[in-house]
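User: Design a sequence. Structure:
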């Protein structure tokens, strides 16, 4: 996730990459070859990685065409070492197969970027008046307006509870339905406040979680993440690494479970005892507990406060 001091700029991706030193350290041991940045954004991590390792090439992917334009300019100095693609997580496997090069590393910096949040016309933020959009890829059809105005109460409740960890999710969902049609972000904020108990509102702005849940649904972020991790881990060479930066519990939980399954290889033996079931791990966890931002980094960039970073190294196949 990145920081934009100029929220009015339609094509400005001034950025402060989160956990930059930690990402570089995680990727330092990978062999020469191709690195995938699956969430290229402002290309902060990508540029630093290419500068640090002259033996690496990059495939930079993003759903946002604006981000790709800016990233291409920032990465121009690396010449033919860089290729970019406008694509989503579901297309990663096909892109990598087309290149047919050894994949030695992958980075997923999840969530919405600060330049996207800070542009009211994108509709991501409850802090600004804007349309109910929330699409990371402006070319896709599904928008937040469709979600909040057409989904039945039960489905709305589920996406708010599962994606946003929204307290009183059903009450909020019912209020949204009762106020249809909703047209702006302000309409969604008002429905959220009306459906949220006062005790919950005193703990913080409830719209933050509601907007998160709707955004995850619009962009199919959780389901597509599972598939993307599977495709990436499968294509990594032995010794290759995948690093994920997650910013909320739902994302981090999925990453933790997928990496743990790769580390155990489907082993059903009791934890702490030697494996006797013959399972072969896909890889090994580089950090058993997630890496978080330092106090200094959070002070400089408050949006780093919730980040959790995990890294998996691909293991060697059994002979």
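Assistant: Done.
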């Amino acid at each position: 996730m990145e920081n934009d001091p100029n929220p009015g700029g339609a094509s400005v991706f001034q950025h402060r990459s989160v956990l930059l030193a930690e990402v570089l350290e995680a990727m330092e041991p990978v062999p020469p070859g191709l690195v995938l940045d699956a969430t290229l954004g402002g290309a902060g991590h990508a540029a630093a990685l290419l500068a640090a390792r002259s033996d690496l090439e990059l495939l930079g992917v993003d759903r946002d065409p604006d981000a790709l334009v800016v990233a291409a300019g920032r990465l121009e100095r690396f010449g033919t070492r860089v290729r970019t693609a406008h694509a989503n997580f579901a297309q990663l496997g096909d892109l990598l197969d087309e290149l047919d090069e050894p994949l030695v590393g992958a980075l997923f910096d999840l969530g919405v970027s600060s330049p996207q949040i800070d542009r009211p016309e994108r509709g991501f933020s409850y802090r600004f008046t804007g349309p109910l959009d929330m699409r990371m890829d402006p070319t896709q059809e599904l928008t937040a307006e469709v979600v909040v105005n057409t989904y039945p109460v039960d489905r709305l409740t589920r996406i708010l509870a599962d994606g946003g960890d929204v307290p009183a999710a059903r009450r909020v969902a019912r209020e949204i339905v009762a106020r249809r049609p909703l047209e702006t972000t302000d309409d969604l904020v008002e429905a959220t406040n009306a459906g949220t108990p006062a005790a919950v509102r005193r703990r913080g702005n409830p719209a933050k979680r509601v907007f998160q849940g709707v955004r995850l649904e619009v962009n199919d972020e959780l389901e597509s993440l599972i598939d993307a991790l599977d495709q990436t881990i499968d294509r990594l060479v032995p010794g290759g690494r995948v690093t994920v930066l997650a910013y909320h519990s739902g994302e981090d939980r999925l990453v933790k479970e997928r990496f743990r399954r790769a580390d155990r290889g489907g082993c059903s033996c009791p934890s702490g005892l030697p494996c006797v079931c013959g399972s072969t791990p896909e890889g090994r966890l580089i950090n058993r507990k997630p890496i978080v931002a330092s106090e200094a980094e959070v002070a400089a960039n408050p949006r780093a406060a919730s980040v959790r970073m995990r890294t998996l190294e691909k293991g060697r196949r059994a002979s």
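Residues 1-11 have pLDDT under 50 and may be disordered. The longest strand covers residues 236-246.
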